[in-house]
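Hi P.,

Sorry for the delay on this. The queue was packed all week, but I finally got your sequence through. Input first:
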Amino acid sequence: MSPLGAWGVLCGLGLGLGLWSLAGLLPSMHRPRLVDRVAPYLVDVSEAAREHARRRTASSLPVLGSLLVPVLGGLRSRASSMLGGGEAIAVRLRQSASTLTIEEFRLRQLGWALGAAGAGGALGAWASATRPVPAAVLVAGPLVLAAAGFLVPDRMLSVRVSRRLARMSEEFPTVLELLTLSLSAGEGIVDAIRRVARTGSGELAGELGRVIAETSMGTPLAVALTQASRDLRLPAFTRCVDAVVTALERGTPVVEVLRAQATDAREAAKRDLLEQAGKKEIGMLLPLVFLILPVTVLFAVYPGLVVLETGF
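Then the structure:
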C-alpha cells in the first residue's frame, strides 16, 4: 500500500470513530424505563442505584463501550486481586466521599503507572536520539516513573481524606451546638439531626443527611449513627456517637450529652490550635535566624567597615 493510501485509511478510521462518538452522544429516542427514572433519586442511599447511574453516564459509545466493558472489568478484578489492600482502600474512599469502587481505583493506579511509563519511554527515546544515553538509564527511567505514577492516585486520595476529615473536625463543635439548640427547643433527636442536615452545607451535615436518609428507609437511628462513625473513623465523632447511643439505650436526656460533647470538642479545638501554634513557632525561627538576623547584622556592620576602609 502506498503512503497516501495508508494515510487515507488512517484518516478514514479517525473520521469513523468521531462520527461514532457523535452518534453515541445523541439522546435515545425510546421511552425511559422506570428504573432509569427512579435511580437518580436513590443514589444517596442505594449502592445499586449509584452503580446504575454510573453505568449509564460512563460510556458515550454504546457499542464500543459494551465491547470493552468485559475487558475492563476483568482488568479491574485482576488488578484488585494482585495489589490487595481492598479494605483499607474502601475505608479511605468512603472517608473521602468518593464514588469510585476498589477495582476502579486500582485501574486508575494502573492507568497512571502505564502513562508515566510511556512518558518515560518517550523521553528516553528522545534523549537517546539526541545524545548517547546508558542502557541502564533507559530501562530504569520508565520503571521509576511507573512506580511514581502508581503512587500518585494513592497520595491524592490520602490528601483528600485528610482535608475532608480536617473540615469535619472544624465543623463538629458547631454541629453539636446546633443539635443542642434544637433539642433544647423541644425537637426530637431525629428532627434535630434532620434540621441540621437540611440547613447545613458542610461535610458533616452531608453525613448527617445520609444518616437521616437511612433512618427514613427503616434503619434504627442508633444503627445508622454507629455505621457512619465506623465509616468515617473520626475520633471525636465516634466518641459522640457512642455517648448518644448509650443515652438512647438508657433513656437519659440526649441534650445534656450533646452539651458536654460540644464543650469537650471546643476544648479539643483549642488544644489543637495551641499545638499548631507551637509547631509554627519553631518554623518561624528559620527565617528569623537565617534571613532577618544576617541582614540586620549586615546593615549594622557594613557601614562601619566601609568607614574604616576608606577613612571617611
